Amino acid sequence: MDIQVVSPSNSRKMIFKNEGIDLSNWKEALDKGSEASIGKFVNEAIARNLRNSIFVDVTANKDVAALYGKLLKKSIAVVACNKIAASSEYKNYKYLKELAREYNSKFLFETNVGAALPVIGTLTDLVRSGDEVKKIEAVLSGTLNFVFNNYDGTRKFAR
Asked: Is 76 exposed, middle or buried (0-12, 13-18, 19+ CB in 10 A)?
């Protein structure tokens, strides 16, 4: 498998090279890149229309997560450790999963539970292999741990 990094970006700089960048000096190449803008970055990725593109989000930025739908609609897979989209309202999460299915792409994430343990992937593999998950008992999230320790039953969990 030939995997090429064609467009690294940070909050200050971004570069695009369809032929891929040399990973031995990616930092230097990025420092010489153009001014970064997540909107411009996504538009450029879509315009280049590179086959089998994957957008990898390693931020915790709501503006980045808000663009997942736009990427998925162009069959660009999204792989994220950004918790915002997958832990947002269920309606939004479901919408992103439906877009991925409709446009034959992937919306993948792992770090929303278990402090980056591969919980979701492991469960998915078990179900795909024919196992039936009957029960899970665990607190796999620091956030949920806080909620459960402070929940008093006076408010709903969902709207």
From this structure: buried
Cα separation, 93 vs 69, in Å, equals 10
Any idea what DSSP says for residue 36? Answer: P
Place of tokens 């998915």: 124
Residue 145 reports pLDDT greater than 70? yes
Give me the residues paired with residue 35 across strands: 13
The angle formed by the CA atoms of residues 55, 61 and 78, to the nearest 5 degrees, is 20
Pair 44, 18: CB distance under 8 Å: no
The answer for residues whose C-beta is within 8 angstroms of residue 14's C-beta and 6 or more apart is 7, 8, 30, 33, 34, 35, 36, 37, 40, 41
| Token duo for residue 84 | 């915002």
* DSSP calls for 33-50: SEEP-HHHHHHHHHHHT-
Q: What are 95-133's pLDDT values in tens digits?
A: 999 999 999 999 998 655 555 667 777 888 999 999 998
Beta bridge partners of 127: none
> What is the CA angle 126-130-136, rounded to 5?
45
Is 112 strand, coil or helix? coil
